[in-house]
Amino acid sequence: MEKKAVKKIVIISALAVAVLCLTFVALIGCDFLGIGIGKGKNIELDVEKGSSTTAIANELKESGAINYPLAFRVYSRLKGYDGMYKYGYYEFKNDVGYSAIADKLMYEGAKAKTVTVTIPEGTGINDYTKNVNGEDVVVPGIATLLEKKGVCEKADFFEALKNANLDYKILENCNSKDTYYSLEGYLFPDTYNFYAYDSKECAALAVEKMVAQSQSKISDDMYKKAEDLGYSMNEILTMASIIQMEAGNNTSEMKDVAAVFYNRLNSQSFTTLGSSPTCYYGESFAEDDGRYNTYNVIGLPPGPLCSPGIDAIKAALDPTENSPYYYFVTDSKGNFYFHKTIGEQNATINKLKQGNNWIYEYFD
Question: CA 329 → CA 147, 183, 292, 336, distances in Å?
Fold first, then answer.
């Protein structure tokens, strides 16, 4: 009786193991074929550059594409696919099976993931802070905007700026020696679709795309106008950046604002431009030596302070002719008031203060 009982237990155990094995094989088979409960869902897979088969298998599991990463690794090894999978962004359904997934990763090429990023006119490369009526206002820079959208990390963006291709006509006069960023002002403000699959590579592509956009906006006639005015394109973009930061989105006043600063440049009564935004731009750099502060430096700063829009660039090239004004001030609603003398300017400021219609920016 004991032998029969033992034999029975052995048989039952063997059957149980066999069932478990068959079940496991069936599950693996379903995973391999892409069939079963939960299949048919959309999958988004972001494979980082340099990812191993093990890492990719784990990513496939986390995304819901497969259930058994070890089985996919074994399959990849047996088929000789190890090291052949490409990085990038993929979209597919999780019912395609191992064979189709492997083919996508090797042969179809990744669908490059893109994100839409808007670079507003007047945006600098760095964040900067200005104090308006006692409250700090932080203006995010291009580096921050790209990082928040997932295009690249800030460190990779700054590295891309250093290693950027400078073989563009628009960059012939950029001041790489005296500016904090030689490409400041040359990254055109616009709405872009940037790649977002690898931080370093996407940072480089974003920089090149923005510089190329700037190049496309400057016509031969604009270069000729700059020459006729006696300025390099770097100086025109520098002036345009000041106009942009002073006028904001008020494009109708840009030519008059430009005239004020040109009048100051050409007047013996003014030794400096005295533009407020040039103060807080420099303060965004930890070791700023004041080289952009137009209350102290003579003439224009060494380079642009932000990315000016096309209206500001056109205003810098075509200021209001024969303007008699040397001063302007804005009220809390953004209206501009232009004046010939400091006395007229102060009188308007006093009226605005009395009517609680005054905005003042403080600087350290």
Answer: 35, 30, 21, 6
